[in-house]
Amino acid sequence: MKALVLQAPGQLIMKEVPKPVLGADELLIKTKAATICTSDLHDIEYNPFGIKLPMIMGHEGAGVVEAVGEGVTDFKTGDEVAAHPVIPCRVCESCKRGLEHLCDNMGHLGIDRGGAFAEYFTIRQDRARKKPASLSFAESTLMEPVCVCIEALERANMKDGNSILIIGDGPFGILMSRLCKVYKDAKVILLGRHPFRMERAGNAITINERTSDNPLAEVMKATDGKGVDSAVLCVGTNQALDLAVAALRPRGTLSVFSAIAGRPTIDMFKVHVKELNICGSCNDMNYLDRALEYLQDEELNLKEVITHQLPFDRFEEAFRLVSKGKDSALKVSLIFE
Ligand SMILES: [Zn+2]
Ligand SMILES: [Zn+2]
After folding, report:
1. Ligand (nearest to CA of 102)
2. CA of 131: how far to CAs of 21, 92, 126, 297, in Å?
3. What is the 8-class DSSP label of residue 132?
4. Residue 252 structural domain
5. Is 124 among the domain residues?
6. H-helix or E-strand spanning residue 222
7. What is the Å distance from ligand 1's center to 306 Cα?
8. 191-200 mean pLDDT
């Protein structure tokens, strides 16, 4: 089969590789769509997770079940499915504590096993869901991105009536802005840099960092001087962290969705006197079904974040769009025959 293989940092090539071997509780999926994640760009460029190369990349995939392992009970050949890339071991201390998404021996498509940028990939049956008929394969690949956005909002202690500051207008920031519609009377403020993207943020009040003299003052004004209840970092800069800490109201919660490289500085005095909660957000607590429900919700219209669909062969163009097309693209899907 054809697959996109990371040979060495910066070297993603298409090549012929053997089809994956099917495990007892796994599905062999003939890929129909696989979507590029911003984290793929980092993995390809710097390999921060120390992936053992060569590796088939890609973790947002969907397709048709071609074969099932002997232990599979919930799926059959021909089923149309979306896959979630995180494979918890279900026996470690974290899994036993109910934190499967923080598993100590976590498996992950495209990290410790072949991913979805290939004509076939395998997934354990509990990490697959049947694709709703109203979604295309490309749209259903958004299941996991939507899952992690739900987690980021939950970790930010998002509730009905809350105000929230989302910093970053990448695909995740835009998905989160739209998702906030599920919270009644939520006030959403999105800080970004790209009009093309911010226009797609649903009901959010948008602030362009490039043209605003004082983003903090604008956030305060939008909340009648109160500050926000919740904030999510969807960019990894110290500046964003400073803004979030300054914009949160007392007892507000910051969810750190994007990691900041190095050791950022933080105003601990503000954290102390405002009793702020700062917490990480990584993967998700099995929101697969909820994500598919939201993806089918016409009012949320999450699927609109897929701005481009390109055939698998044109992967170079697709990756270029994701890294350079910030004024014209959000999510880019690769489509298979
Ligand atoms: Zn992803
Ligand atoms: Zn585990």
Report:
1. 2
2. 23, 30, 14, 14
3. P
4. 157-280
5. yes
6. helix 215-222
7. 13
8. 97
